[in-house]
Amino acid sequence: MGDGPVDPRRRVPRTDTLLADPVLATAAVALGREQVKAIVSHAQGRARRGELNPDEVRDAAVAALPTPGPRVVLNATGVVLHTNLGRAPLSSAAVAAVVAAAGHTDVELDLVTGRRARRGRGALDALAAAVPDAGAVHVVNNGAAALVLAATAMAAGREIVVSRGELVEIGDGFRLPDLLESTGARLREVGTTNRTTLADYAAALGPETGFVLKVHPSNFRVTGFTSAVGVRQLATLGVPVVADIGSGLLGADPLLADEPDAASTLRAGAALVTASGDKLLGGPQAGLLLGDVEVIERLRRHPLARALRVDKLTLAALAATLHQPDTPTRAALHTDPGALRERVERLRDRLGADGRKAEVVPAVAVVGGGGAPGVELDSWALSLPERYAVPLRTGDPPVLGRVVRGRLLLDLRCVPADADEAVREAVLRVPGED
Ligand SMILES: *Cc1c(COP(=O)(O)O)cnc(C)c1O
Fold first, then answer.
1. Partner of 104 at 20 to 30 A CA spacing, among 34, 56, 349, 408?
2. Residue nearest to atom 7 of ligand 1 (CA)
3. CB 169 within 8 A of CB 176
4. Strands of 141-231, DSSP E
5. What is the Cα–Cα distance from 176 to 182, expressed in whole angstroms?
6. Which Pfam families would you find in this protein's record (predicted)?
7. Quick one: fold of 92-325?
8. Alpha-helix residue ranges (DSSP H) falling in 213-357
9. Helices 92-101 and 312-323: crossing angle, nearest 10°?
10. What distance, in Å, lies between the first and last C-alpha atoms of the chain?
């Protein structure tokens, strides 16, 4: 070092500065501040003893964090519910509820009587209150589990009548027909891929019928010469109708006019509605079951229900999400494009000041994750040379964008507004000039 003897101890980054680093701050939430502080002090100590350069302290602390579970990433893909990124991010109310529920809880105990109580009644009561059209409700591990429970309890050894236009693959090679048949129920397929009529269903009904299943085509669209039968008509057939709405929308949302919601589907006559908790509801992974009292009671008492039981953390997050439905998912869906544009322009300007040439471009965001396949959300993205894609994805925190025609697009719609600075720093960490 040419500028004379500078005491390296004076240049060791301060604890506050280090704990404000996005990665260390996130770790402090996950692991507790004390544990991360101990890791930080250890790295500072090494720098004071001359074992590390002061500018290596942060990286050493990050490297010393315990083996992480899933890593926190910044979702700049413009896909609101990205299955590979864990679908819905929890609201801060739900996060606080999860943290609070991590110790001993009264999840299955009535504190007044001192006796066992219905597990997770806080979440169940909140779900029932959110959808008064449901006679009763139950919660299992995910949407697939909800369907498996319904098929097992209501149709094992018998038939599930379903349209050939609704035999859906939900992703990663998992297909609903296989899932349903794994329960011992038989599928009675009716109609064709593009057209199924009420008469097709009626002709298939008989003593073997367990229920008629209506599956929402949540991740694709069939257009052209098509016809399908709605729940209202199916409910006239005199057998129970189970509707898999997928998305978890509890009430109608004008932005998502083609998405069925639980309340309307029950009013149309479904005996049972199944849905996911981590799609449009914006909550934890869960399978929601809403329907007639006798149906829900039968599912709840079925031996398989015990194997699909949800964790107290999920119940805590679900209850909080239902009490405060202003989730990050809802915010991302309803963000004003003008405000997004301003954020992207500010980011571009600040990067420009540091010599990085980025552009502001209009983009189209989508709901994703098995929801609203036809809906396009006007959005804005920061456009960078494609060479940024890999270093940003493998950086810390990872920033995920979308490569379109040789450019990396970072759509800020699903990036929390207070993370724009983290995006800027991540871009600046990518070496090189533009
Ligand atoms: C997403 C989806 C499922 C599967 O739900 P998971 O919660 O992912 O298990 C089933 N059916 C439909 C229509 C869906 O959209």
1. 34
2. 143
3. yes
4. 159-163, 169-171, 174-175, 186-190, 209-215
5. 10
6. Se-cys_synth_N, SelA
7. Aspartate Aminotransferase; domain 2 (3.40.640)
8. 231-234, 262-267, 293-301, 303-307, 312-323, 328-334, 337-353
9. 150
10. 30
pLDDT confidence bin for 219, thresholds 50/70/90: confident
How does pLDDT run across 361-409, given as a tens digit for each residue?
999 999 987 677 788 999 999 999 999 999 999 888 999 999 999 999 9
Within 8 A by CB and 6+ apart from 239, the residues are 161, 205, 209, 211, 212
Ligand 1-lining residues (CB < 6 angstroms): 142-144, 170, 215-216, 218, 244, 246, 276, 287, 370
pLDDT computed for residue 196 by the predictor: 97
pLDDT at 433: 66
Contact 360, 380 (CB under 8 A): yes
Compute, in angstroms, the gap from residue 150 CA to the centroid of ligand 1: 14
Q: Model-level pTM?
A: 0.85
Query: Cα(399) to centroid of ligand 1, in Å?
Result: 27
Instruction: Return the CATH class of domain 74-85+330-429.
Output: alpha beta
